[in-house]
């Protein structure tokens, strides 16, 4: 429905895409490691409603060019000992830039002394799958609250007065 590249013809323009999503009453857009910038029209129309996941702790090892195995290779080369949601995954809201949206949740994954990028990627992926489900569940249960400074927090399911 949407062009894969800027110079590609066909598909819907951003405003038509937004209209289509609204027609289908879409409330939440879940991306899974989506690598392209989202059009600003879509960001504005679905503010605080688009999330993505990154395989390392953001903002470290994020941004343009940091995706897939490249993230894990960069972590190993840097000598990092822990990573989170982009190596130690990070679930974040999507904005008009790469990997700069407000962070919803992160999970720490140890980087072992003799790790290869592939071994690290496998451990991070297991955490990504678990963390993403937990965050989506919190969104669907309306357990996301926003501090006055714009930082999102997830209320504990068991104790609504505590945050995860």
On the 0 to 100 scale, the average pLDDT is 83
CATH superfamily assignment?
Answer: Formyl transferase, N-terminal domain
| Tally of DSSP helical segments | 4
Shape, per Cα inertia axes: globular
Task: State the share of residues found in helices, binned by percent.
Answer: 25-40%
Query: Alpha-carbon distance between the termini?
Result: 37 Å
Structural class: alpha+beta
Strand segment count: 8
Query: Which segments are poorly predicted (pLDDT under 50) over 5 or more consecutive residues?
Result: 83-87
CATH topology: Rossmann fold
CATH class: Alpha Beta
Integer-rounded radius of gyration: 17 Å
Order of helices and strands: HEHEHEEEEHEE
Strand content: 15-25%
Q: Tell me the strand order in the biggest sheet.
A: 1-2-4-5
CATH architecture annotation: 3-Layer(aba) Sandwich
Largest sheet: 4 strands, mixed
Q: Count structural domains.
A: 1
Question: Please, could you describe this protein's structure?
Answer:
- The protein is of the alpha+beta class and 164 residues long.
- The chain has one domain (28-154): Formyl transferase, N-terminal domain (Rossmann fold), CATH 3.40.50.170.
- 31% of the residues lie in helices and 16% in strands.
- It has 4 helices and 8 strands; from the N terminus they run H-E-H-E-H-E-E-E-E-H-E-E.
- The protein has helices spanning 14-23, 40-45, 68-78, 117-140, and strands at residues 29-30, 50-54, 82-84, 90-93, 103-106, 108-110, 144-146, 152-154.
- Strands 1-2-4-5 form a 4-stranded mixed β-sheet, covered by helices on one side.
- Strand 1, helix 2 (40-45) and strand 2 form a beta-alpha-beta unit.
- Helix 3 packs across helix 4 (117-140).
- The radius of gyration is 17 Å and the shape is globular.
């Amino acid at each position: 429905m949407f062009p894969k590249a800027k110079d590609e013809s066909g598909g819907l323009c951003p405003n038509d895409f937004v209209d289509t999503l609204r027609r289908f009453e879409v409330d939440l857009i879940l991306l899974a490691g989506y690598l392209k910038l989202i059009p600003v029209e879509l960001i504005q129309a679905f503010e605080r409603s688009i999330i993505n996941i990154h395989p390392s702790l953001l903002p470290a090892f994020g941004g343009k060019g940091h995706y897939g195995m490249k993230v894990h290779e960069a972590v190993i080369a840097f000598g990092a000992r822990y990573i989170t949601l982009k190596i130690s995954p990070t679930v974040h809201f999507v904005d008009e830039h790469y990997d700069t949206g407000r962070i919803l949740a992160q999970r720490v994954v140890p980087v072992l002394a003799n790790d290869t990028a592939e071994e690290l990627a496998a451990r991070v992926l297991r955490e990504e799958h678990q963390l993403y489900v937990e965050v989506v569940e919190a969104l669907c249960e309306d357990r996301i609250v926003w501090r006055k400074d714009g930082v999102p927090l997830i209320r504990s399911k068991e104790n609504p007065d505590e945050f995860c």
